[in-house]
Amino acid sequence: xxxxDKRWPWLALLVSLSVLAIGYVGYREVDxxxxxxxxxxxxxxxxxxVVRKGDGRVYYxxxxxxxxxxxxxxxxTDSEQRMHDSNPRYAYSVDWxxxxxxxxxxxxxxxxxxxxxxxxxxxxxxxx
Length: 128
Prior knowledge:
By secondary structure, the protein is α+β, with helices and mostly antiparallel strands. It is built from two helices and five strands; from the N terminus they run H-E-E-H-E-E-E. The chain has a five-stranded antiparallel sheet with strand order 3-2-1-4-5. It starts with a helix and ends with a strand. The relative contact order is 0.17.
């Protein structure tokens, strides 16, 4: 019984430290996921270049993702390159269709998710 009495404080300390460590790691993970979710909801603006026009559509490519942190920037760049290779992005039936030509600069507002996928929120000729 005396052996158990001597080990009890050490076991209690070990269990307490383990619970604290697990709580700290859990808190850090929840905080990281919250920041990731908030970052996905931010709307960013970037310039884009008009590639061509046709059928009431303005086709464009986004110039850069410099305002994104890594690794989201790399994922967005890869995603945009795959999108451009298969089918470029376009804005349909816009009021500024007649004012732009191939090579013109436009501005795109978008949300970028953690996997690099983009959701276009708006496209316009002037920066907001």
